[in-house]
């Protein structure tokens, strides 16, 4: 585990509920005072012709992530601004997300191993979509993330919250307080 990666942190800054975050994703706007805001840069655009994608990612401590998207013809791109101390609820996505950090710092945490993988500006990570995860801004300045979702559905949510019971269990196992009614 890298020196900057860590387990068992308690993140306590409240952020909007998953419903509020979902609304921000759907509408692409949230008040500047919100701990996490989302702004669509590209809303569900289609590529010309048939597009398929195969990705693999190998990270220390995790099993190999292999993603095959037979129909990656729909694309959505979001810009997230995450205030210092803010944390996302545990969630998945209906497609694969290429996460790129433009500004600040971001700890990306897969539920599989509870390890905080620190991203710095100019770095990124592949979020396979079907892997439960969260992310946290450990820095003193806002983090700006560009999230490119491949294989986005034509309609519906782009962020899929885990059930409350699973979120509570993950908070306990990973030593994290994520937002929502399940928070300890």
Overall description:
The chain has a single domain, classed as Jelly Rolls (Sandwich), CATH 2.60.120. A 5-stranded antiparallel sheet has the order 1-4-11-6-9, with helices on one face. The chain has 2 helices and 12 strands. It is globular. The protein is mainly beta and 184 residues long. It has helices at 18-27, 164-174; strands at 36-46, 53-57, 65-69, 74-82, 91-92, 96-103, 106-110, 116-119, 124-127, 133-136, 143-150, 160-161.
Pick out the low-confidence regions.
1-32
Summarize the main sheet.
5 strands, antiparallel
- Which value, in Å, is the CA radius of gyration? 15 Å
CATH secondary-structure class? Mainly Beta
**CATH topology type:** Jelly Rolls
Instruction: List the secondary-structure elements in sequence, H or E.
Output: HEEEEEEEEEEEEH
Beta-strand segment tally = 12
Brief overview:
This protein has 2 helices and 12 strands; from the N terminus they run αββββββββββββα. The protein is mainly beta and 184 residues long.
Secondary structure elements and pairings:
Elements: H1 18-27, E1 36-46, E2 53-57, E3 65-69, E4 74-82, E5 91-92, E6 96-103, E7 106-110, E8 116-119, E9 124-127, E10 133-136, E11 143-150, E12 160-161, H2 164-174
Antiparallel strand pairs: 1-4, 2-3, 4-11, 5-12, 6-9, 6-11, 7-8, 7-10
